[in-house]
Amino acid sequence: MSTINYDLSRIKALAFDVDGVLSSTTIPLHPSGEPMRTVNIKDGYAIQLAVKQGIRIAIITGGRTEAVRLRFAGLGVTDLYMGSAVKIHDYREFRDKYGLVDEEILYMGDDIPDIEVMKECGLPCCPKDAAAEVKAVSKYISHVEGGYGCGRDVVEQVLKAQSKWMAEDAFGW
């Protein structure tokens, strides 16, 4: 397992794509035609803990399914950008809403629509199975594939660097 080469004490916010990052790249289709996603329980635990520890979390996804909204709202994420056609616009809205600077934001994406955000944020990260173009602009490539704990990987490293991982409220949901 590798570690992120960045001053993680500076990170105040984490933003994630969903498909290919917090959900695997292969998704079943419901008979209605709606894409169904998988989620990783350990990603979910880490995200809700980060929220409790005061780290801002954003979900920026092109997807529009209600199940995705419910999943992340249930983890305490209030900044949900669904149906994001051009992600850089939603990223900038999130950044500016909280008065953040790019160097304080980690973004994890896996494919071409994520590249603009990754070039602008301070800490661009990606899963092990990200597109080659995304890996080329990433400062950290997780040892884990999308949907299988890459979110947990980066959240855990940030929280540990800030002494917020095994905190008092870490032992519950």
Automatic annotation (TrEMBL):
<feature type="binding site">
    <location>
        <position position="110"/>
    </location>
    <ligand>
        <name>Mg(2+)</name>
    </ligand>
</feature>
<feature type="binding site">
    <location>
        <position position="17"/>
    </location>
    <ligand>
        <name>Mg(2+)</name>
    </ligand>
</feature>
<comment type="subunit">
    <text>Homotetramer.</text>
</comment>
<comment type="similarity">
    <text>Belongs to the KdsC family.</text>
</comment>
<protein>
    <submittedName>
        <fullName>3-deoxy-D-manno-octulosonate 8-phosphate phosphatase (KDO 8-P phosphatase)</fullName>
        <ecNumber>3.1.3.45</ecNumber>
    </submittedName>
</protein>
<dbReference type="Pfam" id="PF08282">
    <property type="entry name" value="Hydrolase_3"/>
</dbReference>
<feature type="binding site">
    <location>
        <position position="19"/>
    </location>
    <ligand>
        <name>substrate</name>
    </ligand>
</feature>
<dbReference type="GO" id="GO:0008781">
    <property type="term" value="F:N-acylneuraminate cytidylyltransferase activity"/>
</dbReference>
<dbReference type="InterPro" id="IPR036412">
    <property type="entry name" value="HAD-like_sf"/>
</dbReference>
<dbReference type="InterPro" id="IPR010023">
    <property type="entry name" value="KdsC_fam"/>
</dbReference>
<dbReference type="InterPro" id="IPR050793">
    <property type="entry name" value="CMP-NeuNAc_synthase"/>
</dbReference>
<dbReference type="InterPro" id="IPR023214">
    <property type="entry name" value="HAD_sf"/>
</dbReference>
<keyword id="KW-0460">Magnesium</keyword>
<dbReference type="GO" id="GO:0019143">
    <property type="term" value="F:3-deoxy-manno-octulosonate-8-phosphatase activity"/>
</dbReference>
<dbReference type="GO" id="GO:0046872">
    <property type="term" value="F:metal ion binding"/>
</dbReference>
<keyword id="KW-0479">Metal-binding</keyword>
<keyword id="KW-0378">Hydrolase</keyword>
